[in-house]
Structures are given as structure tokens and as C-alpha cells.
Amino acid sequence: MATFSHRPTMHEAPTRHFDIAIIGGGFAGVYCAQQVLKKLRGIKSMRVGIIASENHMVFQPMLPEVVGGSLSPQHVVNPIRMICEEADVLKASVTSLDLENRIMTLDGGRFTPNVTVTFDHLMLSPGAGVDLSRIPGMSEHAYLMRTVGDAMKLRAAIISRMEEANLITKHQQRKEMLSFVVVGGGYSGVETAGQIQDLIAGVLRYYDNIRADEPSVTLVHSGERLLSMLGPGLGDYTRRCLEKMGVNLIFNKRVRAVTARTVQLNDGSTIISNLVVCTVGNAPHPILQALGAAGAVPLERGKVVVDPTGQVKGVEKVWAAGDCAAFPKADGGFCPETAQFAMRQGAIIGTNIVACIQGKPLKPFKFTGLGELATIGHRKAVAMVFGLRFSGLLAWFMWRSIYLMKLPGMDRKLRVMAEWTFEMFFPRDINLLTPSFSSPLGEMHLEKGDSLFRSGEPAQSLYAVKKGCVEITDANGHLVKAAVAGEHFGERALLGDGIWRFDATAKEPSELVAIDGGTFKTLVKSIGSLDSLFRATAQQYHLPEEIQQTVAAMSETTRLSIAADVMTKSVTSLQAGQTVQDAIAEFQAHPHSTYPVTEDGKVIGLLRRSIAYDWLKNHGLTSQDLLKDLPLTKPFCVRSDMPVPELVQTLMRTGVSKAIVVDPDYRLLGIVTVFDLLKGGQESVPPVAPVILPELAISPR
């Protein structure tokens, strides 16, 4: 059995049985269901089920028009229940699939128990998956073009950038905000780039503060020619049309990394952009990966290998079509991943499933393709139909006519036709009507040298470092903190006035998790321990003037001293070879909260009394365990010749109240606390210049 995830439930799983189960609500799945229902009409005993992650079928060739504002989102989707009325439609995800025992488990959502489905025939058409992980930062920052939700989100993002840029007074900032990059020179990439350019050109006159030369659309393609499947002639025509519209084209280059503000190419060049659209990155669907790994179905390059009839090779009563299948073409090779092939594959499989049930011969797939069409934007398109090539306005009219006929449902045909007609006479809709589904958590990728935020900018998030290193520096360029994996920063601004007082820059390629500021404040208010924790760690981020003020409040004698002059030399320490019982005796004789632990005279850690007592509770009051076996705290050590102003900065920037003073060999010399620095009295003196914090001061062995 191939299993993808499991969510335990307290309820008994409901069960259903289908004579024919179809996984996927795209072209292949829906047309298979329609053909089966047509062939079995009047046979009440046969049950057909469609399992899809959405309750609608998306007419994907028209998604770029949603981005460009030529079509409303609801007009490019069809409810599966309405176009397959006699089928049982289940909106759910398949979590496990056992082909041998003909059973699958479905997850319908947070509030429903898992559903068990048994079946006789199974049609696999879940489509392709998405894998952007090969390009650092792409999955965190890029917009996709696969669903109607993706198209709506992208269109809203473009209009939102226009609205924000209209508020900015600096020309360069507007150019950076209005730089849009589309990755991929196939059908989706070309059509999306053209529609974005058309949208910008159509609405620019409504934004008084945005100049015509500020918005830009850049298409990055790894090949030498756009739409290579249409031949060099139409590919070159597409290039000329896009360039004339104002789209910047980059050929023979790949995206190496994406950050919040840049797109970095494999030749070392960088494009400043705040919005990236990715139309590449197809990957095997998780269902197929699990089945292939279990040996249940044969895979070739992540696709299910099928016979010309659509039946999976070597597996009875299991069929596959669409983007997930290596479907043989009648004239050789495999079928391309286009709608015209998917719908016909689904139809022939529907016919063959019924034939199999009735004991009739199966029919092979004979369709070789009618042609290819792609719209470029600005009422231009390219087409190759029955071997003939068309371009320009005629191809654009053909594109609209052909896809209008293929659009399922008469009501959708009429709505789209009316909307296209209105679009010819009226301006594009620029309403920003997108509901907010923002997640309180977001992941981001930074390349070396990338700026996360600058002093004076509004603080929006708390950041946690998953990988890499981010350096926090003050106005003087001095290092405040180098946040590495497992550490966080940003709490001071969020707990204060909401303004960054420092600069944050990636020291190396880094992965971060951003926690929304609103969510952070809610948690801090709700959980007292978190409030105490973050207020304590916020003390590490002291401004230069705050450090100068503390130093200036000290007596002149103290300011001119070094650590050895102000430290407490008589320190109660423990030996690593002593037992916990020995330590308890020292606690009683010399009560302190923390004790340095040494081995051969060198400091190896700190033992807190609370840790020792917890150890005794868990290991017994007669514990003879050695102190070096306990979870010692990492000591904070400073050198004995450190000047007091530098020592103050070190203590304030690290958020500790005491430091162990050691010699170059890390032998214990004494201990210094904030109270040792202040006990010499206070006086009013001119501020002391800030000092650079050396690496030695914060690097205990």
C-alpha cells in the first residue's frame, strides 16, 4: 500500500464503493467521467466517483487572461457536479492508495473523518506536481500559474504593487517595486508575460504618479527561442511582438536563486524585482511517486507508463491520462501535456473502461493533434493548425474562437463571449478585491549580502534563522549580533515602537521563518513566559547612544579600568570531577545562583543550582554523578585586559549580567558583574565613543 500521510481520527471512517473511481478533476478526469456516464446511461447499478482536490474544473488556457483582467475568475471554472451530474463528486485528497486490495483513504478536511473508498476500475489523472526546491528562494517568493486562485493572487499582487508605487515619491524605488519577472518561455510563460504587460499598459493612465518608463516585465528563458514547439518562424514572431510591447527578453540563462528583492541568474547577473512568476518546475505527483516507490505502477521520468488503450502497463483495471501519464502518441513518441490531448485521452479511456466491463475489445488512442495556439497579448497570437502557421490578429481570433468552443458549458461560453466583447470597448477592471488569507508564518531565502531590513523601516515580523547567518549592525556599522541557525531577532522593535533601529544583512545564503508581528504580539500577551523571554532577549539590542549613556554614568576611575581591576577575584568554583553531592555541600557553604566548573584549571561550563536540584529529583538524592556529566551552561568569558567601556558594550549586547574573566588559556581569574561596574559611583561626564566588539570577547571555548 502506498501511503502519503496519515491523520488519526476518533471516528469510524465512512466507506463508499465505486465501480469506476477517477482521481483528478482536470480535463482527463472530467472527460473520462462524461464518456463513462454517457456509455452507461440507464444502468443504475454502476457508480462513478470523481475524487478531486477542488470541486471545479479549471480551463487552464484562459488563466493568463484572468491575470490580465480580460476575464473574471469565475468564468474559467466549471463546477464538476454540474458538468458530470450523474457522478458522485468527492472533494478530498488521497492519503493512501492500495491497488492490490482496491482501496484508498481520503482526507476531506479538518472537520471530517477520513473516508475509505473501495473501487473496481481506477483512473489516475491527478495532474503533475510542483517542485521549486531546486532553485533557492523560488518556492518562498514566486507566484505560480496553475490554479484560478494563483491567477487571482497574481493579478491582485500586480495591482497592489501599482497602488503602492503610486504612493512613493522616489523614481528608483518605483522602478524596483514595478519590476515583474516571469520565468519560463513556454505557453504559460509567454501568455502570462504578455497579459501582465497588457494589464500595465491598460491601467497606467489611472496612476498619476507612475511614469511610463517605470513598470517593466522581464521574461527569462533557458532556451534560444520562445515557443520552440511552434517552429523558428512563429518563435521569432513571438519574440518581436513581445519586444515591441515592451517586454524584456533574456535567453539562454537560468534563474540561480530568488530573494525578496532580486532574481539572480546563473551568469552572475541580478535583476531587481519584487514580484516573480514561475511557470516551470513540474514534478511527479506525490501519488505517483508513492505508487512507483512501492512498485505498484511502472514510472518513466515520474510518469505512469500506459498502453495505447490508456491502461497502465502490467496492471489490470488501472488507467492513467493527462499530465501524469507517459501516453503513447499514434505517430510515435509521447503525447504533449496539453488540453487537447488530455481531454481525448480521458474520452478514450472512458470508452475502454466501459468496453472492458462489457467484455468488448479496447480501442487504441489514435489522435495526433490538431495544432498549437498561444496568445501573446495586445490582440496578437501565434498558431499552427493542420500544419499551417498563423500569426497576428487572425491567430488571435482563431485562439479565442477555438477555446471558446472547447470551454465546457453553454453558460460559460456566453459569459466569456460577452466579457471579451465588453473588453474591446471598455477599460480593464482595476478593482483590488482579494480576500486576505495571509499566513502568520512565512519562509524566505536570502543570498549573501541581501538586506532584510534597514534602520528606520517599519518592523513587520519576528525572524527565526533556519539556516545560514544574518548580521545585525548598528548605525556605526558595528556588529550587534550574528544570528545563526536556531536563533531569532526582531523582538525589540515589535515590543517597542515598531521601527527597526538596526540593519540586517545576510552574511551567507540563509533561510528564515518570519512570524507576523500581530501573531507575535498576541502570543506574547497570552503567554507570560514568552513575554519574559522576549523582553530579556530584547535587551541585547542596545543602540550606540544607550551604551554611551551607561558608560558615561560610571565614575572616571571605573571607565579607565580593565576587567581585572573591577572583577571579584574570590570566586567559589567547582571541579568537574566532583559529584553532585559535593556540589550540594558547596551550595550550603557558599550560596550563589551560578558556579564556574573547571577542569585542570580551565573553565568548561557553569552549573546553576536549579539544574543540580532538578538532576537530583530525576536521579535520586544519593546521586554520585560527576558534575561534568550534568547539562552545564555555556560560560560567557572575557579576557582580563578588556577595557571597561568595551566590557559594558559586550555585556549589554549579549544580554548577560555577569562574565567569567579568564587568561588566554581560559584559566579562571575572577568574575565581573554589572554591579561591579556601577559600584564605583556615578558622575556626569561627556559621552564615551563607542568601541568595536572583538570576536574574543564573545567566543567562550
Based on the coordinates given, report the CATH architecture of the largest domain. Answer: 3-Layer(bba) Sandwich
Strand content: 25-35%
Name of the CATH first level of the largest domain: Alpha Beta
Given helix and strand content, the structural type is alpha/beta
Helix run count: 22
- N- to C-terminal distance: 52 Å
The tally of structural domains comes to: 4
Biggest β-sheet, characterized? 8 strands, mixed
Estimate percent helicity.
Answer: 25-40%
State mean pLDDT (0 to 100 scale).
84
Structure, described:
This protein is an alpha/beta fold and 701 residues long. The protein has four domains: 2-53 and 92-128 and 284-358, FAD/NAD(P)-binding domain (3-Layer(bba) Sandwich); 138-280 and 373-425, FAD/NAD(P)-binding domain, CATH 3.50.50; 441-540, Jelly Rolls (Sandwich); 544-698, CBS-domain. Helices cover 31% and strands 26% of the residues. Strands 1, 2, 3, 6, 7, 8, 9 and 22 form an eight-stranded mixed beta sheet that branches. A five-stranded parallel beta sheet has the order 11-18-12-13-14. It is elongated, with a radius of gyration of 33 Å. The two termini are 52 Å apart.
